[in-house]
Amino acid sequence: MEQIFQSLTQFWEYTGFANCAWQNIVMIAIGIVFITLAIVKEWEPMLLVPIGFGMIVGNIPMFPGLNIGVYEDGSVLNTLYQGVKQGWYPPLIFLGIGAMTDFSALISQPRLILIGAAAQMGIFGAYLLALTFGFAPNEAGAIGIIGGADGPTAIFLSSKLAPDLMGAIAVSAYSYMALVPVIQKPVMLLLTTDKERRIRMPAPRQVSQREKIIFPVVGFLITAFIVPSGLPLLGMLFFGNLLKESGVTRRLAETARGPLIDVVTTLIGLTVGASTQADKFISIKSLGIFTLGLLSFIIATASGVLFVKVMNLFIKNPARKINPLIGNAGVSAVPDSARVSETVGREIDPGNHLLMHAMGPNVAGVIGSAVAAGILLSFLG
Amino acid sequence: MRRNIIIPIFLLLAAGTLQAQNVTDLIISEVLAEPDSTGILDDYGRRGGWIELYNTSQGTVNFGGCFLTDDRDNLRKSLIPKGDLRTKIGPRQTALFYASGNGLDGTFYAGVTLAPGSTVYLVSNDGRTIIDSLTVPPTLPQGKSVGKLAHDLRGQVFEVEPEPMVPSPGIANGDQNAATKAQVMAEKDPHGWTLTIVSVSVVFAALAILWGFFVLLFRLLANGEGAARKPRKKAAAGAVPPEVAAAIALALDMEDSGEVYAAIAAAVDLYLTDTVHDAEPFVITLRPSDSPWNEKSQMFRQLPK
Prior knowledge:
Oligomer: heterodimer
Number of helices of chain A: 21
Number of domains of chain B: 3
Radius of gyration of chain A: 22 Å
CATH architecture of the largest domain in chain B: Sandwich
CATH class of the largest domain in chain B: Mainly Beta
Number of strands of chain B: 11
């Protein structure tokens, strides 16, 4: 009888109930909130469901040493987590993004590329703020990249610059990406006048297939020569796009934008979520990261909108004026931020469709954030 | 046929550039010929000279099968064993060989003896190609070593140090406690303004170049296409092209309805203004159709009657 009691006691020590701390409960609750938001509100469900469930997986209290935790060498989760830690999931996702992105909107109106550059101010604004808050330069760089509104880039850069902060940075980036409509709209309304919001832009011209094929090759050469450290992201992005546009590699492009990106997105979401183990995640630093992440999104949106207004000062022809509501799309949350431009634009003028115009700066933002990540890596890596 | 020739040529050219992460990335980074009383002891308790190799690349290099020698005329003097898993150097790491004069002492023992004035060669596994060499100056004091250091920003160009070095066997030469880039930035740019200004400029420059290029490209393409379409535009300004006129005349002969005129006018307008494009979707859809060939009853095995 006594032996049975001892065995049960020993078993109890191994259960989650015996090892549970309040931090685990908090993180599991956050995971459940993520899943709820994804299912009920349909906010970035492809990301929030895996991340939310990963948070639950990573925060099941356990007896250390069983070789099952994400931070225990050789465990299944640890093996899957290597794609995040070594930084090879993000480039694979970029391959898929490239294979599904149509750069026509950008090619037809090349001037919109500059909006994608302006919105990267969110990254550097957050970098400056993070330094002011006392973060080390490499940590500040990793936090700043949240402002690029690009989850894979944020994971890629933080895995190189500040691996300890990667969980918080990734969760912050994806959370705010899901909240793009909530964050960006007030900033856009605050910085634009009624008249500006009514600006109608001319229909973009038709882009030839030849231009579409030239774009990834030239785009890659120019950006990679300027910032070689962005090679993993830029190379994969433009390669994926070439697969799509070349017209002769349709099967490869379909795999890249279909099964491949789905598999990697599932794994990256789950493992990033699992990496938010309470003992490593709940800290003052994480709180600072979330605050700075929010600020970086606001700065990025404001920079994009204000930059369009500045551009309009130099455009004499009224018919060529740019609607500042597409400025927010300079962040690379594709296509969510472009959708925000469309929604806000139609609220004031139901016949004014801005989606295609906003896709220009939106895809430029993807390139811009990858370039910015490369620069930060070369300075701080 | 031409493609069959071109592709292998390209592959050969590419193979010629595949120099990274092989034994050519190794250098002899440091040599000690005559130790003093503080010199390191080998596994046999002997104090003697040693040779340090360094991997300059960012990948692991296996140097098993290479040779070390102090005789220019006998490049295969001391073989580094091939089968030892330890004959690998990680990126920017070192491997140390004791110059015991007998390579059979162990994997990391070279069958060479060192003295002031002697030259050590690292030879590739083909036994002919000298990868690197280092000469011990005749005037090198006892207990001092000769070595190579990279002073360039990339840390790739290694040069022999003119001054005798304090021996550092098995440790990469130079300052191993150099500040990281982040530490340097923290010191030089504590508020981050310099990095911010430079980075924003670079992002703008990169995307502005892209912008400029595509504006230029579009103009070039538009000019090219414009030149190609000139005859058609001339026809639009003056007379309708003969083939279109013939089609219209034929249609008018056959029909006398206003709808037909409208349809023809719209078609001609679309054709002449080039609004219609005929981009192919590159997709062929094969729809199943029933025929006696795929009729199931026809495919059943006929039982003998």
